[in-house]
Structures are given as C-alpha cells and as structure tokens.
Amino acid sequence: MKLTILAPESELFSGEVIKVRVPACGGAFEILENHAPIISLLNPGTIRIVEAPKKQTKIEIKGGIVECAGNNVYVLAKPL
C-alpha cells in the first residue's frame, strides 16, 4: 500500500508500507492493505509506519487529516 504524508512546506514521507497507525479523533486506528475507504481528522500524536517487519518510522504531528482510498493513504499533517 502507498502512504504519502504531506506538511504545508514539505513531504514528510512517501513510500510502500505494510501498515500505518494514526491518532484519529475517535481513537487511534491502523490502516492495512485493502482497508475500507475512510476520511478522518487527526489529533496531535504519533503516526507509526511499518515499512517492513523490522523497519518502523514514527512521525509526531500536531493534527491533520487522513484519507484512505483503494491502497493509497494520504495524510495532510501539521508537523511539530
């Protein structure tokens, strides 16, 4: 699945991932391949990205929006 995380001034992440966990307003949730379409607001917190079984990345954000459509996930975030 393809994940793109954009901030107002830069691209924070772009690449293929196994899963991503986002700090949504209704509680954190994970997005995996073939996830149902969703759009959600994000709270301040940590986006956890799993690129490979032993490769994880964390990005701290102040808030934002996540959209999942097909196997594409887009995050528009306010970075710390």
Helix content: under 10%
* The CATH topology: ATP Synthase, domain 1
Describe the biggest sheet?
8 strands, mixed
Output the CATH homologous superfamily: F0F1 ATP synthase delta/epsilon subunit, N-terminal
Stretches where pLDDT falls below 50 for ≥5 residues? none
Shape: globular
Count of DSSP E strands? 8
Mean of the pLDDT scores? 96
Q: Please, how many helices?
A: 0
What integer value in Å does the Rg equal?
11 Å
Following the backbone from N to C, one meets helices and strands in this order, namely EEEEEEEE
- Strand % is over 45%
CATH architecture: Sandwich
Structural class: mainly beta
Q: How many structural domains?
A: 1
**Intertermini distance:** 25 Å
Write structural notes for this entry.
With 80 residues, the chain is mostly beta strands. The chain has one domain: F0F1 ATP synthase delta/epsilon subunit, N-terminal (ATP Synthase, domain 1, Sandwich). 0% of the residues lie in helices and 69% in strands. The protein has no helices and eight strands. Strands 1, 2, 3, 4, 5, 6, 7 and 8 form an eight-stranded mixed sheet that branches. Strand 6 (45-52) and strand 7 (55-69) form a beta hairpin. The protein is globular and about 25 Å long. The mean pLDDT is 96.
